[in-house]
Amino acid sequence: MELAKPYDPVEFVVPEKHRFGPIVGIHIRRTEVPQAETRSWHGVRIARPARIALDLLLRLSPRKRSWVRRLRIGVPDLDAFLRAKLVRRRDLERLFMKRRNRGIRLARHALLLSDPRAESLPESELRIVLAAGGFAAKPQYNVRSRRGHFLGRLDLAIKESKVAIEYDGRWHEEPSQQQHDYERRRRIAEEGWRFVIVTAEQLATDFASILDAVRTAQQAQFAG
Q1: pTM score of the predicted model
Q2: How far is CA 100 from the centre of its chain?
């Protein structure tokens, strides 16, 4: 899982007492960074991994977005960071508990919702959408037959009601991937699971319809 792309925006965290910028293509955020949270790199102070994880969440200004929108952005970044094993969860818990930064309560909530098992940023975002709707979905859930044979792995699963929620990005439009998805989902459906397939367009614009589809799938399971 890549953590950054070549043309992603660059952010500088600058102590409040210093002047720096503006510079085109660089976002400046002013806050204090204790010496212990940095290390030297070619004569420049750079943040240690735990501080980077904190900044990924604190950069989401509460004045600009709802808490759900901020979690949909912040938790996927944190999932990727934890999956890359750049920092341990218990180290973040200790750091977050002793901080008093603006937005730290949301950062603590994001840490509770984070899960390094997520394999892509959209899957993480989808999990947060489900959580906002009251659904606790497990990422990368392995499904086995009644005899214990492995049938496939689900992006997200609500085990209790056997509802599978999967994100189909554009790469799922490839014929070979479509065939693979069809066979895997057929095997799992034969074990009583129902699928809700979410597209990139839905995730970007209409998460209310996603939650409605999950509710409908659950009702159908319980009714059956």
Answers
A1: 0.83
A2: 24
